[in-house]
């Protein structure tokens, strides 16, 4: 039997899969280039439009045809002497570094911000999303894109606009009883109210541990778990008891404020998720709410425990939250609430419980580091990740750019 007929090894099969995916992405880039050329020539071969040409001949939906045309226009359509607005994204797609879904998310942000920010800021935001797209899945690019749009829109509001919103927050709740006797709820919350609710649900709506007798997981759906959590929130409020904790932290609002910017009107990041004005942040700090202000300048404080303790302290967790902003694995968007400190040098290998040996990881990526060939090392005080050699023979250090603040876009 010849060598050509042998079964591929596991590594070869995985590499073959990645090569096929890259070819698919490069083929999509070639498709968009052709559509851009057809747009320039106004070519649709007797059909009413290029959109109709595609729906009839390619047998695709009108929505897909329009999405292709928008992407082709931004990535590959020349505008006189100027390059296409997303030329760098087009080049990355042509090289198989990102895929169609990444392109869709970057185009969405570009369309929303094109007339809202200076050209230099728009380019910087696009580059940040492009860097993220090369290490993250499309839904994580979407999440960061929404955060960028959120920051821009919040930053564009005047003090009068913000005061008007805060005096009359647009929160709504409709409650009615259905024919089956159960009560139905429908409503809307403002930014801050939504963050408070999400913080509580994050604590209370987690799946229950597996049944110790049968090993069965929590059978409830996400909606059922959140419904049960809402009832528990109401019961807690009625009793006025202290709220439970998650990962050693109370269910609080985390305000991330740069000390050098406290006298400015820069928006403030709440729970690593949404932005409020500095005036609103000051009001929150004066209220009776459970608030943790993460006020920082430069790097986090160097807190060390050595070998005296295996688990990180509450102070260390807060310092890690300021440094890592959430799960540090490349492309992950999980916020600090959903993470746990991981020893870079394992505790069982004499690793120390010091900040320079700790990194925040979500549950999924904690398992990846422990049970796959991915590795993490500290470089100049930052966690750097290394993919398995079959995926990255060059062993290039990778960092998480998903938590990069939009206000640092031009830095």
UniProtKB/TrEMBL annotation:
<dbReference type="InterPro" id="IPR003870">
    <property type="entry name" value="DUF222"/>
</dbReference>
<protein>
    <recommendedName>
        <fullName>HNH nuclease domain-containing protein</fullName>
    </recommendedName>
</protein>
<dbReference type="Pfam" id="PF02720">
    <property type="entry name" value="DUF222"/>
</dbReference>
<dbReference type="InterPro" id="IPR003615">
    <property type="entry name" value="HNH_nuc"/>
</dbReference>
<feature type="domain" description="HNH nuclease">
    <location>
        <begin position="315"/>
        <end position="367"/>
    </location>
</feature>
């Amino acid at each position: 039997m010849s060598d050509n007929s042998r079964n591929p090894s596991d590594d070869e099969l995985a590499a073959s899969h990645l090569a096929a995916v890259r070819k698919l992405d490069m083929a999509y880039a070639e498709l968009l280039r052709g559509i851009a050329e057809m747009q320039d020539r106004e070519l649709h071969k007797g059909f009413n439009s290029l959109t109709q040409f595609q729906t009839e001949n390619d047998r695709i939906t009108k929505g897909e045809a329009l999405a292709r045309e928008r992407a082709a226009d931004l990535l590959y359509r020349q505008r006189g002497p100027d390059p296409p607005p997303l030329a760098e994204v087009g080049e990355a797609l042509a090289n198989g570094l990102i895929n169609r879904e990444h392109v869709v998310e970057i185009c969405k942000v570009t369309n929303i911000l094109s007339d809202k920010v200076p050209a230099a800021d728009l380019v910087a935001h696009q580059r940040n999303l492009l860097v993220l797209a090369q290490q993250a899945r499309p839904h994580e690019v979407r999440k960061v894109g929404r955060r960028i749009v959120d920051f821009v829109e919040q930053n564009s509001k005047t003090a009068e606009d913000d005061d008007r919103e805060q005096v009359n927050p647009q929160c709504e709740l409709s409650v009615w009883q259905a024919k089956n006797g159960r009560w139905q709820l429908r409503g809307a919350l403002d930014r801050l109210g939504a963050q408070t609710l999400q913080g509580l649900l994050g604590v209370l709506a987690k799946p229950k541990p597996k049944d110790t007798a049968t090993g069965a997981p929590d059978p409830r759906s996400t909606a059922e778990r959140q419904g049960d959590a809402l009832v528990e929130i109401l019961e807690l409020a009625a009793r006025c008891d202290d709220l439970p904790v998650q990962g050693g932290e109370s269910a609080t609002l985390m305000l991330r404020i740069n000390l050098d910017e406290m006298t400015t009107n820069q928006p403030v990041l709440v729970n690593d998720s949404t932005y409020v004005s500095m005036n609103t942040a000051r009001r929150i700090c004066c209220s009776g709410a459970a608030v943790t202000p993460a006020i920082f300048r430069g790097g986090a404080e160097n807190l060390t425990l050595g070998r005296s303790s295996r688990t990180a302290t509450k102070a260390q967790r807060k310092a890690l939250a300021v440094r890592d902003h959430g799960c540090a694995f490349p492309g992950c968007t999980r916020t600090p609430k959903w993470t746990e400190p991981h020893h870079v040098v394992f505790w069982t290998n004499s690793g120390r419980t010091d900040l320079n040996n700790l990194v925040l990881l979500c549950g999924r990526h904690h398992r990846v580091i422990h049970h796959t060939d991915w590795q993490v090392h500290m470089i100049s005080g930052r966690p750097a990740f290394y993919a398995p050699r079959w995926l990255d023979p060059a062993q290039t250090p990778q960092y998480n750019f998903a938590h990069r603040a939009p206000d640092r876009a031009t830095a």
